[in-house]
DNA sequence: GTGAAAGCGCTAACAC
DNA sequence: GTGTTAGCGCTTTCAC
């Protein structure tokens, strides 16, 4: 921490030219070479660096974008954040991380707080959505891009994925490898992902292709390992008339890990006695033992797309609301296939295989 | 995105009072109740919300703190970020996430960029440090807190931990459970953590208590699972004259997971044939199978401490540079103890046990 | 190509 | 307790 910073005014005085010329010289907009040299020299001598706040006030742009999620600890959001940062930083934008809290109410508050104009745009991935939130986003004074549910009809930019279809891919894969009695460990139904995935599971297991087999859902309190462990214990303690479960579909990778731990407690081998699939295709799932078959929802892609979208909006591209969809795809790994001892590789993007 | 936002001036006109009174009324500083009511009503009618930029320019405070790390995907940094956010948000501070890049040079650039005054302070955890960086931090126009190496002598606020001692705890634990031939999988030596951990391992294994046993280091290219897997393959393919390795100390949890995967490839059971310890006590280590014995370096605590420190500094607390140390402690889990089938619990903070 | 001046939205002296 | 006014640092008309 040293002496107070130099202002443009001081640079101007030092160079012996006007404030306006100094500004122009530093931006290279319509100034003679002599002027540019002179001003640059003065700026260097003073260690001048332009003040972001003064500039923001004048230009009405902060060069900041907010990214808001319920829980920044969740690996999916971390992947999104990384991707968003990678897209925005080269354009000179900073990323402000915010927390929505678990409820819609606090998310609405957050969107309203955009009124203080500290960012040029917002990327938000709400766990739950209602009319008040939709309305708040519509009224927001800066562009908002939603990652999650498609909100195109509501006139809101959104980046979505078809997690219901993704769940279908997981079920189809399990049926294909001969599993017949499939349990589903889902998270809370009142969340956007929870609801979509339940729809996907119900649709997949009531399709003709699934006839004659057994399907059953158990709901975890949260999308975490701990909640998944508890839910799986409940699920696996029941034995359907059709026979014991031979597969479990989990609504995300963390729940899937909980399921595998529960299987271990009960002496069930994975995938031998119980095949398990996750969703989100996280790093942790790739390195877990057994590595996790998982439905990729393209977290990084969704982050990138959202960042690009908000960048377009901030750049005054006035178009109707856009909806970008990232297709889910299944990545098959050890938790649904017999592992070969020598095939235990590191985090491989190579073993991918698209299903359906 | 709707109509342009209302300004304080407009609220003043609407209320039929002066600009200053409006400001005062809204802040509750020396205004009559009647004035407050009147102004509040006008503000509400206009949906006024104060402009953060105008206020920042005037107050010379942005209410933003930057958090900069090389790789925001690393679970340790995510934990720090969460803790930092939790401390700062209640004080009205936003968190700006920045990337230092892997080299010292880009970190120096980042510190210099503080000159544009977009944040009131910085928390940075550099992987590598040199004189130029120390000097840049000293010259920085806003308070900077370093998480990592102690920089008290250089007059810089820092939050550190004794990872060398932590490594000693891991080695002591392995010796205690009867392991005699211990390998060490470290990350790059030219990083601050890499160097410290190597020092710790060398010290622990050259202490009298370790006499007559075998110690050997293998260096991974990076602190990742993939690099750990490759390094462990190299290490375990060698058989010391004293006999095969019966334990591996890894410099962090990600490396440790790579080690366990390598052990699996070679048919070595963990912890039966090979006991493995990690460091950082991450979430992923807790849920891994086998769950990871790990040296906690108090990531969340360090984040909290750094946030508190930067908060004190921006609050004009002028004191000599502070150095806060968070003590490491060993958390024993399955990877160094025989697991009981029914003891495979969820992420437990309960099974902790301090060593030494 | 250069300079003078206005003004972005806000807070804090300073008078009354 | 209230109003008037200056000014934070910058960009951008507008005249010349």
From TrEMBL, chains A, B:
GO MF entry, a single one: DNA binding
Keywords: DNA-binding, Transcription, Transcription regulation
Region Disordered: start-end pairs: 337-356
Name of the protein this chain belongs to: LacI family DNA-binding transcriptional regulator
Domain HTH lacI-type: from-to ranges: 6-59
Keyword Transcription: yes
The organism's taxonomic lineage, starting at the top: Bacteria, Bacillati, Actinomycetota, Actinomycetes, Micrococcales
Signal peptide: none
InterPro entries: HTH_LacI, LacI/GalR-like_sensor, Lambda_DNA-bd_dom_sf, Peripla_BP_I
Top-level division of the source organism's lineage: Bacteria
Keyword Transport in annotation: no
Species name: Promicromonospora vindobonensis
């Amino acid at each position: 921490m040293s002496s107070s910073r130099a202002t443009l005014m001081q640079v101007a005085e030092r160079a012996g030219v006007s404030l306006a010329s100094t500004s122009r010289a530093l931006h290279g907009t319509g100034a003679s070479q002599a002027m540019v040299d002179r001003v640059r020299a003065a700026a260097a001598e003073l260690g001048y660096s332009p003040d972001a706040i003064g500039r923001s006030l004048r230009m009405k742009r902060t060069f900041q974008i907010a990214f808001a999620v319920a829980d920044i600890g969740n690996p999916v959001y971390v992947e999104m954040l990384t991707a968003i940062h990678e897209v925005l930083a080269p354009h000179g934008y900073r990323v402000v991380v915010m927390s929505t809290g678990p409820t819609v109410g606090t998310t609405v508050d957050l969107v309203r707080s955009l009124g203080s104009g500290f960012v040029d745009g917002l990327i938000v991935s709400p766990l739950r959505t209602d009319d008040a939130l939709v309305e708040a986003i519509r009224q927001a004074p800066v562009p908002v891009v939603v990652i999650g549910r498609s909100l195109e009809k509501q006139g809101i930019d959104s980046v979505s994925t078809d997690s219901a279809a993704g769940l279908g891919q997981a079920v189809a894969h399990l049926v294909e490898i001969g599993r017949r009695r499939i349990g589903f460990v889902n998270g809370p139904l009142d969340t956007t992902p929870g609801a979509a995935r339940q729809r996907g599971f119900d649709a997949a297991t009531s399709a003709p292709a699934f006839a004659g087999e057994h399907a059953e859902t158990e709901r975890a309190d949260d999308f975490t390992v701990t909640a998944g462990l508890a839910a799986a214990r409940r699920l696996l303690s029941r034995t359907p008339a059709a026979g014991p479960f031979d597969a479990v579909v989990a609504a995300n990778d963390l729940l899937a890990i909980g399921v595998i731990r529960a299987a271990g407690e009960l002496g069930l081998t994975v995938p031998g006695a119980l095949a398990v699939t996750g969703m989100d295709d996280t790093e942790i799932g790739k390195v877990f033992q057994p590595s996790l078959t998982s439905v990729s929802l393209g977290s990084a892609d969704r982050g990138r797309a959202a960042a690009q979208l908000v960048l377009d909006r901030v750049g005054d591209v006035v178009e109707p609301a856009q909806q970008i969809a990232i297709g889910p795809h299944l990545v098959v790994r050890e938790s649904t296939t017999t592992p070969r001892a020598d095939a235990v590789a590191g985090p491989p993007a190579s073993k991918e295989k698209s299903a359906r």
